[in-house]
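Quiz preparation item.
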């Protein structure tokens, strides 16, 4: 009998209970016992949901107190050396210290989870000898069985992926680290087998990105030994986000199941099946429901896909499952009552995807007639969204086709622009600035809510925003910042703000997903053709500029980031969506320039997040992503200085594309991995203006002057002081006023020291 399964479920709760509990605990409003109790109840609530929906194979152990990769690192006692630790289970205070930093130690680096919008804490392998501090998958299995009678499938991040996602070792030490971890993974599996566990899900998404010969050989040895250690325990080797590389070798591994993504890796995985077939002694986990997207699955199309797969594997060895964990989508559409009917009808969030899995398993096993009602309803909904007038705006489509067919470049090369901008702005050596946002205090959030609920008039709210701008313009001048920002107090989220003002977007009320830690975002939905309506940022930016003689930057979110941080329509190529966004934002850039704003920052923190996982697909993506940025900025005068900002960027592998964006100044979020980025500049020349974040805004600690001075000095060993800017590594929206002011004062003092050191070289 064909069964249904899911690879993971959102941990945050329908009303973000998870986030609220974490932040209350961090603030000292919840003691540890109450905190653990709240998260335990939420964890069980999620399992009850899967149980009640009728999911046959339920994952356990995918729930986390912060991040699943950090969970794995601490389970193995791999605590960075700068934190005091003497072995054994890692206490919550240390666990969160690694993620968020402490007053004595910086947080570990955070970076994106493959090409998703989720970010994980990067393990630091270092010199500590790994040990099994606690068997977390076993604990999760016991809890589900004892409390709910669920025979769950424990989820474990596989050793190959864990090591590949880590830092602190040389490439030739990869096999050595696998050997160090192998006894610990064996112990976990042996203990699961002794408990009577039938299956364990070993997540190895790195297998879709490719392994070299040595890594592939290590994979084969590793899984041979793991399978032999617990012969009574079946391993589901799970891949996702793309098609598996080295398919023919992977299916020969002595595991009892292979999970493949037939949504994002459909073409490659079907090609591999056609060429090599599928072993007759293994279960195929068929990821046919999109775990990352929000659109309804075409049940008829996916049933046809399952029938095609049945030519390679019998129905009793076919598991109908999500393409990846549902961590990446909101919890439920059912509570959304303000969306257009044709849009709401076309959506499927986590709970709706559970229904799709159950229906598909039933329809495949019993025939289409058994789910005819669901098939009819699904097709009606998909037809309605396809016929929406929002998707057939000929004015937008013609204008975008016209501009995107031409080369998009500034009218003058950087060298000429640099001289023109230097003459106009007369900025000091090593100019200081911030990335854009200032603290959104409880007072700011309360005012916004009062306005949105109709308790405040628009005039009252606008006056409040002007007061906040006045306050922070004065503070920036008093601190000594050279290029100011207005603070973005009128903005909720850097993508949501623009989406609310552009046509073609829709917004949920409760569609939250986890970005990192307790940070949850509510991505907009791009469901129609994107169009500019009226200026979006000019009023606040021009007002801020009127309050100071120093230059104020206009602040926009770039087209690729808006696209990558939104849920996007799936009926046209992403490239076309990017060009529509670029055309709309270009009109905003022109409006800012017309209003006298001569420094404009177009943030692109998510360019790399959209990079395809397959190397052969990356150049094409980067070409049109860079073109979209240039389409946004290429019409400006040479004296207008274009800035951009990027987050957690592995700079070395796309330095050429970043340079090709031709921004006058780029700021990079790098404080958690500063050394690696400087090494990139030791190997690659960067001829444009650049600012490396000199302190980590994601940690509440205030960095000392000496720390920032050291970072600046190291950067200026390889970068030209004439082109170097000094700034925090990201926006300051989530920080408090007191710590923000203190950190910026230290940054300006560090800049003063650096100027005295490096002025003689200019």
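Solution:
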């Amino acid at each position: 009998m064909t069964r249904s399964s899911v690879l993971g479920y959102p941990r945050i709760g329908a009303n973000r209970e998870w986030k609220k509990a974490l932040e209350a605990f961090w603030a000292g409003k919840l003691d540890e016992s109450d905190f653990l109790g709240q998260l335990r109840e939420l964890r069980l609530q999620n399992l009850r949901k899967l149980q009640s929906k009728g999911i046959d194979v339920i994952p356990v152990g995918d729930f986390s107190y912060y991040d699943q990769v950090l969970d794995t690192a601490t389970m193995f006692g791999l605590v960075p050396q700068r934190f005091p630790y003497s072995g054994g289970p890692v206490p919550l205070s240390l666990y969160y210290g690694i993620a968020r930093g402490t007053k004595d130690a910086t947080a570990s680096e955070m970076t994106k989870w493959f090409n998703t919008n989720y970010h994980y804490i990067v393990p630091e392998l270092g010199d500590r000898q790994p040990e099994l501090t606690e068997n977390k998958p076993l604990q999760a299995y016991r809890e589900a069985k004892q409390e709910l009678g669920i025979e769950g499938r424990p989820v474990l991040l596989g050793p190959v992926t864990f090591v590949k996602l880590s830092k602190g070792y040389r490439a030739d030490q990869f096999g050595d680290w696998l050997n160090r971890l192998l006894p610990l993974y064996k112990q976990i599996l042996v203990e699961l087998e002794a408990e009577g566990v039938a299956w364990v899900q070993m997540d190895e998404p790195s297998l879709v990105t490719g392994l070299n010969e040595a890594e592939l050989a290590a994979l084969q040895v590793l899984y041979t030994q793991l399978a032999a250690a617990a012969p009574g325990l079946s391993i589901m080797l799970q891949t996702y986000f793309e098609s598996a590389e080295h398919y023919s070798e992977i299916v020969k591994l002595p595991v009892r199941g292979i999970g493949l993504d037939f949504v994002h890796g459909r073409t490659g995985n079907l090609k591999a099946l056609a060429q090599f077939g599928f072993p007759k002694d293994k279960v195929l986990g068929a990821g046919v429901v999109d775990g990352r997207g929000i659109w309804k699955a075409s049940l008829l199309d996916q049933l046809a896909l399952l029938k095609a797969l049945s030519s390679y594997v019998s129905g009793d060895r076919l598991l109908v499952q999500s393409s990846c964990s549902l961590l990446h989508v909101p919890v439920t559409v059912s509570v959304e009552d303000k969306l257009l009917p044709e849009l709401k009808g076309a959506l499927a969030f986590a709970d709706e995807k559970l229904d799709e899995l159950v229906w598909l398993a039933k329809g495949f096993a019993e025939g289409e007639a058994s789910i005819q009602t669901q098939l009819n309803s699904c097709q009606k909904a998909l037809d309605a969204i396809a016929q929406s007038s929002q998707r057939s705006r000929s004015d937008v489509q013609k204008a975008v086709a016209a501009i995107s067919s031409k080369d998009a470049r500034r009218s003058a090369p950087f060298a000429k622009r640099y001289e023109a901008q230097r003459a106009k702005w007369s900025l000091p050596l090593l100019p200081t600035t911030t990335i854009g946002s200032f603290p959104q205090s409880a007072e700011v959030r309360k005012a916004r809510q009062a306005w949105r609920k109709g308790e405040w008039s628009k005039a009252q709210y606008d006056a409040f925003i002007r007061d906040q701008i006045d306050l922070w313009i004065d503070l920036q001048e008093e601190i000594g910042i050279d290029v100011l920002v207005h603070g973005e107090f009128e903005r909720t989220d850097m993508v949501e703000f623009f989406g609310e003002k552009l046509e073609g977007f829709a917004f949920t009320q409760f569609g939250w997903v986890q970005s990192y830690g307790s940070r949850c975002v509510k991505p907009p939905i791009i469901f129609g053709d994107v169009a500019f309506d009226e200026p979006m940022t000019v009023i606040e930016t021009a007002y801020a500029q009127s309050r100071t003689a120093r230059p104020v930057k206009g602040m926009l979110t770039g087209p690729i980031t808006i696209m990558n941080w939104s849920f996007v329509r799936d009926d046209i190529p992403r490239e076309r969506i990017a060009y529509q966004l670029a055309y709309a934002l270009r009109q905003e850039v022109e409006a800012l320039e017309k209003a006298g704003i001569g420094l404009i920052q177009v943030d692109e923190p998510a360019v790399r997040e959209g990079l395809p996982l397959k190397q052969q697909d990356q150049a094409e993506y980067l070409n049109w992503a860079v073109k979209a940025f240039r389409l946004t900025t290429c019409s400006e005068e040479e004296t207008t200085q274009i800035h951009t900002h990027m987050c957690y960027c592995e700079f070395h592998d796309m330095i050429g594309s970043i340079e090709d964006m031709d921004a006058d100044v780029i700021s990079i979020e790098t404080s958690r991995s500063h050394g690696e980025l400087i090494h990139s500049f030791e190997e690659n020349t960067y001829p444009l203006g650049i600012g490396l974040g000199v302190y980590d805004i994601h940690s509440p600690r205030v960095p000392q002057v000496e720390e920032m001075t050291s970072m600046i000095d190291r950067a200026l060993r390889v970068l030209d002081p004439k082109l170097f800017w000094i700034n925090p590594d990201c926006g300051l929206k989530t920080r408090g006023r007191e710590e923000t002011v203190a950190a910026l004062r230290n940054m300006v003092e560090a800049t003063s020291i650096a100027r005295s050191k490096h002025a003689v070289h200019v």
